[in-house]
Amino acid sequence: DYLGKIKLIIFDLDQTLIDTFHRFFDVFNETLKAYNLKEIDLNTFSRLYKEDRLNDLLPDSINKKEFWIRFRRLYSSFENSKDSLIDGVPEVLKFLKSNGYSIVVTTGREAKPEQIKDELDKFNIGSFVDLVLTLAQQDPSEEEELFSRAGILKQILQKYNVKKEEVVFVGDYWVDMDAGKKVGIFTIGVLTGHEPEEKLYKYGASLVIPSVVHLPQVLKKIENEN
After folding, report:
1. Which of 21, 53, 88, 156 has fewest C-beta within 10 Å?
2. Number of C-alpha atoms within 13 angstroms, CB side, residue 129?
3. Which residues of 75-93 are buried (b: 16+ CB within 10 A; e: fewer)?
4. How does pLDDT run along the chain (226 residues), one tens digit per residue?
5. What is the secondary structure of 122-136 as a DSSP string?
6. Which of the 8 DSSP states describes residue 214?
């Protein structure tokens, strides 16, 4: 993948910048309850989450897309005391801002951007972020794959008037990798979302790193090569 001088970094939110694994568990159980389904324990959830098999818990009578839309609309109205920043995130964002990069945060939650901004502020990283976009800002017809934000990525390119080669997208989920590949931007997978490295590469990751803490050295390397 050819990269020009990078101007813009787009970050996914959950499991990329903020560890909300336990919140995901709470919201998933709340959504199960809404469908009169039995709640699950953390061990079962953890195993199925890491295998990307949570849909196995949903009977055929339930519309999977509707289930997940309900789930992602609930997500921002929950908090969990275990919610925490991924290690090194403030330092990485500070480094990026001080080096002149624009920073956009996008999320698969269907929420108002203001809700996400409030959360970023709560974790003291809101001041580093130039723009927040959520799935609520994407035309539903552009969501070919559930949770895909390809439409949002295109919006960001237009808004900032940047070339694809000038942008990096960082996320933890295979759908993020797929969206980045479809839009044609350099997409970096992080392993903090418990997704296997080979799966991230399979669906289009240009590069996979353990976490965002490794991003500055990757960017330096990319910039030095061009």
Report:
1. 53
2. 25
3. bbeeeeeebeebeebeebb
4. 556 689 999 999 999 999 999 999 999 999 999 999 999 999 999 999 999 999 999 999 999 999 999 999 999 999 999 999 999 999 999 999 999 999 999 999 999 999 999 999 999 999 999 999 999 999 998 988 899 999 999 999 999 999 999 999 999 999 999 999 999 999 999 999 999 999 999 999 999 999 999 999 999 888 777 6
5. HTT-GGG-SEEEEGG
6. G
Rounded CA separation 74/105 (Å): 19
Q: Which two tokens stand for residue 51?
A: 């295998």
Crossing angle of helices 21-34 and 42-50, rounded to 10° = 100
One-letter amino acid at 22 equals H
- Using the structure block, give the residue that is written with the tokens 């000038």: 166
